[in-house]
Amino acid sequence: MVEIGVFGGSGFYSFLDNVEEIKVETPYGAPAAKLAIGEISGKKVAFLPRHGLNHEYPPHMINYRANIFAMKEVGVKRIIAPNACGSLSPEVKPGDFVICDQFVDRTYGRKDTFYDGPIPTHISSAEPYCPQLRKIAFEACQEVGINAKSEGTVVVIQGPRFSTKAESRWFATQGWEVINMTQYPEVVLARELEMCYVNIALITDYDAGLEDMPEVEPVTADEVYRVFCENNEKIKDLLMHIVPKIPEKRDCECATALENARLG
Q1: CATH top class, domain 4-256
Q2: What is the value of pTM for the model shown?
Q3: Which of 207, 212, 222, 251 is labelled catalytic?
Q4: Which listed residue (101, 116, 205, 237) is catalytic?
Q5: What value does the mean pLDDT of the chain take?
Q6: What are the residue ranges spanned by the domains of the chain?
Q7: Is-catalytic flag, 112?
Q8: With DSSP H G I counted as helix, E B as strand and the rest as coil, what are the percentages for the chain, rounded to 5?
């Protein structure tokens, strides 16, 4: 059984050597790709590129339920999710990492729950990201010399377009630090299956409309991809430090998310 899963983001499609590829079928359709199973420090790890091997699935078309369910099917209990994000704050710079602790959902129409009935199920989203994994991830960032924030709020937009300047300014005035297109519903689907989940936001750009930085050019897809690829080795190094630190025991509420969530 595999206990740790890693979702790859833009430009981050493989990091394990000597892998075994497994095709997983789910009740929600096919995941974005086969799962690549390998080992880090003696622990089995499953890797899945959330956008597909050739980045064929834009954020609003990802089958998030199939991706998460596939991880659960092979035994994954903890998910590490690096992804490319924009900054909404001058203090959060391209190349920085943010270990998010909150999200704001601005998406629409996405399949965002496994529980459509007949038993009403309402998980708590007060603390959506696993505190145990967040602590481990931030400590690993410090060890490898990555400039990181231990907390931050990510606003998740529908995509595939980037924000207008007005939208970006609005998000920034709310005090939200990070903007992204894939964090929702990935994180809540993991919680619904009682899996721990940590987001590692790699800042690739300043979002459009930062009023204190008029010189900032509007973000482009090419620039996001370029910066993310330049930092791939940092992410790989970070994962090699995170995985050995993960204890067998889960000392968090993620594992019991359904205990008081169901009616009837």
Answers
A1: alpha beta
A2: 0.92
A3: 207
A4: 205
A5: 90
A6: 4-256
A7: no
A8: 30, 25, 50
